[in-house]
């Protein structure tokens, strides 16, 4: 698949293209253009054409892109033409919300387990999940072959959880804890921390 | 403040530097180096020096950075040397979790109001908040002079909420809904959508 090295910034835009295409499908649309996609996303049409051309020929000059076809292609490129099982570690407010999140449907992910270390939570039902003991995490994740996880524990526990996930074979971590994790280079981490996102914007305020 | 135009990608790294410096303070540390910061963040020391040099002289060759001083400077640059009131729109699982989030303390933000449009929620207590009627949003936000908001409503309502926030004078929106918002150019939007984050990583999985 990865015959040439694609910049990660380009890979990072593909999910946005896919999301916009899925909205168009929901609107009953069948064909779009790089201009229209660009307007929806605030990205130039030229950038979109250049990004997509790194992966193949998906549209024709003058006729644009067939939405279903382009979606299928991007799903294959991003490997979300399948459903990845996701483990959530930390059954607090954020973890419970993200485990129950409806927005993963049709986007390649299903949360299948929710872990915590609190005796008050282990064994209890939260939404559709029975909270699992973090002491069983490594064995359970390894047995199920889970490669994707979300960390929703407090900052002071997040690195220890990351170490445990890496030991269990997880290769992709979405980190909600407000600190940067140290992981081996073969493990990917994406961070989402509302304060960090907000601070990037207040710079521009008066 | 903005004498020269700083690339947004540089602005986007400052909150990460600030977060790492705050952790060092919590660890009782007083001095650090671009090397150490770089190792914590997975960013090269040269990049960190270059980024910081865009804003001034914050350290000395050989002695490194005084952590408290550098934190104060970055707080001023990012304008989080004050506390911004934040409105959360959408009192579902994610909105309730983010409104209750402890991680904003000492980082420049305080959620002060939580809105919803559901008669079942309006007037009810969720955590420390009494849910406000979205019909009062424009007037309330304008009166309080709130410039920062988070959108945690379903995708099909998010654009309408964004329009309302913009009308009320909001200038910075953290969008949890899984779609790209159209806003005037003077309004900043940051997006956080767990499926998009995860899709960016599955590309690299086998």
Q: How many β-strand stretches of chain A? A: 11
Give the neighbour order of strands across the main sheet of chain A. Answer: 8-5-4-9-10-11
Examine the coordinates and then state which fold CATH places here, giving the name of the CATH topology of the largest domain in chain A. Answer: Rossmann fold
Give the overall pLDDT of chain A as a whole number. Answer: 94
Counting DSSP H or I runs of 4 or more residues, the number of helices of chain A is: 8
Which segments of chain A are poorly predicted (pLDDT under 50) over 5 or more consecutive residues?
none
Q: What is the CATH class name of the largest domain in chain A?
A: Alpha Beta
- Indicate how many domains the architecture of chain A comprises: 2
Greatest interface = A-B, 58 and 58 residues
CATH superfamily placement of the largest domain in chain A: NAD(P)-binding Rossmann-like Domain
CATH architecture of the largest domain in chain A: 3-Layer(aba) Sandwich
N to C succession of SSEs of chain A? HEHHEEHEHEEEEHEHEEH
- Please tell me how large the radius of gyration of chain A is: 19 Å
Oligomer: homodimer
């Amino acid at each position: 698949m990865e015959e040439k090295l694609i910049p990660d910034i380009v890979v990072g835009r593909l999910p946005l293209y896919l999301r916009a295409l899925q909205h168009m499908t929901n609107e009953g649309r069948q064909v779009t253009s790089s201009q229209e996609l660009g307007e929806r996303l605030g990205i130039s049409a030229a950038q979109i054409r250049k990004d997509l051309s790194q992966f193949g020929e998906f549209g024709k000059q003058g006729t644009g892109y067939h939405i279903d076809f382009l979606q299928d292609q991007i799903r294959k490129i991003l490997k979300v033409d399948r459903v990845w099982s996701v483990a959530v570690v930390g059954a607090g407010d954020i973890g419970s919300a993200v485990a129950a999140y409806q927005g993963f449907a049709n986007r390649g992910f299903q949360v299948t387990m929710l872990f915590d270390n609190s005796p008050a939570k282990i064994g209890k039902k939260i939404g559709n999940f029975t909270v699992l003991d973090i002491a069983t995490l490594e064995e359970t994740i390894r047995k199920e072959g889970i490669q994707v996880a979300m960390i929703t524990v407090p900052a002071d526990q997040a690195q220890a959880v990351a170490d445990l996930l890496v030991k269990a074979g997880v290769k992709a971590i979405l980190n909600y804890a407000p600190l940067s994790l140290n992981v081996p280079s073969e493990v990917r981490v994406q961070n989402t921390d509302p304060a960090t996102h907000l601070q990037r914007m207040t710079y521009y305020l008066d």
